Each structure stands twice: as structure tokens, then as C-alpha cells.
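**Backbone description:**
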Amino acid sequence: MKFSITEFDVIFLSYDEQNAERHWSDLIEKAPWAKRVHGVKGFDTAHRACAELSETDWFITVDADNIVRQEFFDIEVSFDPETHPRRCFSWNGLNGINGLAYGNGGLKLWSKAFVMDMHTHENANDPRKAVDFCWEADYQQVYRTYSDVWNNCTPYQAFRVGFREGVKLSLNRGCRVTAEMMKLMLHEQNLRNLRIWSCVGAHIENGLWAMFGARSAWRNMCDPTWDHTVVRDYDWFQDVWPSVADTDLVPACEQLGQEITQMTKIGIPVLTEETSAFFRAMTERHE
């Protein structure tokens, strides 16, 4: 069965993002029927709030750091809701800092049954699902890009997103990996994305903060005693931020890179503004 995207409720999901109002205004111009959930603590809990607000059995979420491309509202999706009543489709988002295009921050089409039945993040009953949705059964990645993700509005926002991705990309199917085994056990694409988060961004506003966040998280993930599930708690980030807000970023990134390389044997240089911009231009995906 084919469905137009415009048949589904669109729900804008915001928490504290500084660019949320601008992106919300852009969304309601393109999708005047859009609804909004704001300020709900907890990733799992916030998505349940979206399901409760939706008047359609399937609904689309737009994260607050997203600008949705107009062509998204022209597409159709094919699936049988009777055969697969519990499913999530996730499209790529193009990251404004480093040019990566994958599921992080992308648009998602959820069935209410999927959301109300899932237990992830703060409600996880499986350690693999403690910091991400993607290990839920029937979570399907769609490799087309229909939004642009701008999570570099402030140093804090960039640090937080880099840190969260540094943790998630350091996991092997949701499970911890020792520093010595990361080079062998991390999925090839995840390791590539982790290195790019850690190296690319010096050419763009607050990009170094995202790199510092990713490197800080990666370094912490090399310590088996560190609790990585803190990244699902935005209060934790607020508590940590004052201790890092005055960081001298370039030497700090260099130091973290040396420590990570020593522990993992994985090289992560700090690219200059020029080489960072060149790398992004050569690798950015525009599908």
C-alpha cells in the first residue's frame, strides 16, 4: 500500500534547542498541520508524548535541530500497516557540521504501536537500548536524505550532540567494546562516522565544540568503569557544561586524540579549517 507523507501527523519535538523557534516557523510554513511537543524530559517519554498527541495511527517526528526539505512532503511510502503494525522508518539527515548523512537527527515515521511498546533510553529494559532507538525490532533505516540538521547553534548544543554521537558510535550493536577491540569490533561505517565527528568541523561555527564533545566521549568510552548511559540525561550535560565551557579547544582536542590513539591504535588528527572544509566538500552526500 502507498501513502502520501501528507496523510500523517507531523510532530515537531523540541527541548531546549536555541534554533527551535526558527525551525518550527519553517516547518509550519511547509506543513501547516504540524503539531508540537516541547520540554518533555526523557527520549522515550518524549516520543510517547508525540504518540499520544498524534491523531493518526502513524506519525512523523521532526527533531528541533532539523530543517525539513520541501520535497519530503511530495514523497510516498509503501508498507502494509496490517502486516507490519509495529514499525519505524528513519530517513537520513545531512549534518551541517561535518557533512555526514545517516540516521542521526533524521526524520522518522513511527506507528503508535511501535512507540507505545518500545522501552529505550530512560525506560530501557535491555542495556543495548539504553542510548538509542535503532536496536528496536522493525526499526528500518531509509537511505534517502530529506532534512538538514543544524546542531551547532551554540557551543553547548554542538558539544552535547558531539558527545552523544561519540558514545553511540563507540558501541557495537548497543554493547560496550574495550578500547583495544574498537578497531576490530566497531562496525566499519560507525567507526568512519566516529572519526569524522572527531576530526571534521573546524571550518564551521562551533564545529570544534562538536569535535571536542565526540573526542571527550570516545575517551570516556575507553574506560570500562565509565557509565555511558548518562548521555540520555540532559540534566547531566547541564551539570558538566560549566566545567568544560572555557576549554581551549585545539590543544584539548589534540591531547584527547593522542590518548585515544594510544589506547585504540586509531588515528584521529585535528584538521585545520582548510582541510576540514575540503574533506567535507569531497565526501558530503546530497541524495
